[in-house]
Known about the structure:
It is a single chain. The chain is mainly α. 76% of the residues lie in helices and 0% in strands. The chain is built from six helices and no strands. It has helices at 2-19, 27-36, 41-57, 66-76, 80-93, 98-118. The radius of gyration is 19 Å and the shape is elongated. The termini are far apart. The relative contact order is 0.09. Keywords: Signal. This is DUF4810 domain-containing protein. InterPro entries: UCP020555_TPR-like.
Amino acid sequence: MKYLVIAAAVALLSGCAARGLYNWGGYDDALYASYKDPTKAEALRTKLETHIAAMESAGQKVAPGLYAELGTLYFQAGAKSRAAEFYAKEQKAWPESSQLMTALINNIQRTAATEAEKK
């Protein structure tokens, strides 16, 4: 009986370890490709959008940092308001990121206000 319990525990734990906690949707490979070739940043953005939309429609939790990564890609492309939307989603999904996301959102808002004053 003792061996049966140990075997069941090992099988259960190894099954959990193989699956992973979150579905990253090939994020690591796409990120690496975009670092190697910055022209692939658009492909990374598209891949993240597709993956996040699929996760949200399936009612699954998006992996930590993916909203923020997509927001940063929008920020780099000049779509600052869109970036702020994804930073806010990251903040809501992962409260531990609140300070960083708040700082990034505030920076975007401050920059937008400064640009509006110059016009």
